[in-house]
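Hi Q.,

Before the meeting this afternoon, I wanted you to have the magnesium ion prediction in hand. No need to reply - just skim if you have a minute. The sequence and ligand are here:
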Amino acid sequence: MARDGAIYACQSCGAVHPKWAGQCPACGAWNSLAEEVVSRPPGALSPTRGAKARGLVFEGLENLSPPPKRLTTGLAEFDRVCGGGIVPGSAILVAGDPGVGKSTLLLQVCASAARRGASCAYVSGEEAVEQIRERAHRMGLADASVKLGAETALRAVVEALKREQFDLVIIDSIQTLWSDAHEAGPGSVTQVRACAGELVRLAKQRGMTVILVGHVTKDGQIAGPKMVEHMVDAVFSFEGERGYPFRILRGTKNRFGATDEIGVFEMGDAGLAEVRNPSALFLNEGGQRAAGAAVFAGIEGSRPVLVEFQALVAPSVYGTPRRAVVGWDSGRLAMVLAVLEARCGLGFGGRDVYLNVAGGLRISEPASDLAAAAALASSVLDVALPQDCVVFGEISLSGDVRPVSRSEMRLKEAAKLGFSRALAPSNADIVSGISVANVSRLSDAVARIGDQPWT
Ligand code: TYD
Ligand code: MG
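Predicted structure with the ligand bound:
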């Protein structure tokens, strides 16, 4: 094995530097550079020489080959995020916090696919086979013919995978694997990159799908797996708030489907249950809706989801008022507050502002601006929105309420769940059963909220 020399890889962002430094020049993290030894397999060509040897033959855009036949796992929420089942020979990264339920989800995916006749393997570097078996029994998956293995050496894993023809292989997790071709420790950037590269190559060669599990670090960055993201065909993040049973599988990259799709699950005693119709899941049930609450008619992927935004604006006891937000972007909260102050005359100076998206969902759609603003205005004015009202619309810095897409789908879903009014942009479709108050300025919306009862 030729030793090419040492490099310094940032364990936080994966950037590689020729010299050591106290701070990573790429991501700014301190003390994150670790020495790693680069090696090249004997006989490997340098990229330039390899390209010259093969030559390049241009082809046209016609002669489309038929779309790949997908393997549906039978776990509909998972198949939806994949874009309608997994594509043979593809590689998928499932990333999430430790303890969120990645192993549980993928054991279910594996068992479900096996029950449909696929040949599946589950390789764990974190748990013993007995532990996985015990969990599978508890989850009622004992009858599925999944091949279990506990191994951390990449060479052993690859050899085992070459001995049989698998359709689907789970690697739990990529950070526990190590390759003996590299001296760096398991979980280091070099090891994660090398192991992922080898497994992705194997997946393509053998037409089997490989699902890699990756842990994320405290700050939400996928450490280690971050540079795996560009090697794989799809990246799904598995999310959930502590204390809530709901888990969301969110596609953040997908070469074979839409990326804004979500799968919704509920964690229970027997593993994850699929939530087929999540639209009403995140509404705060029962009782009168209090001042500071607004129901957002949102879209997640291809499905409508209604979710309650809750705001509390209270006098601050601190010199610098607090701004706390759960489930929404804090930068957007700052923007909406600034627009409410500058364009609508509402004052937040000297007051703490809390904003929460109920149910543990994280909303990133810009169409939720107006719902957040309505919740904030309702709290400041101490006037509750009507019980049967949904809100959606994007807000610009000038104070305009901008049109958003798929208003018909949002309103139809709201009507289905018993809502009869909406505060919405001027382009909103007309849907029977819902009377829409069209607002083109945020100040109109705030005036309406203050002018109860509505007409
Ligand atoms: P796990 O899949 O091990 O998480 P990860 O692989 O992402 O680290 O899930 C761990 C959590 O899920 C653990 O706190 C217990 C909970 N859990 C249940 O509530 N019910 C179940 O049936 C299972 C298997 C796990
Ligand atoms: Mg696990």
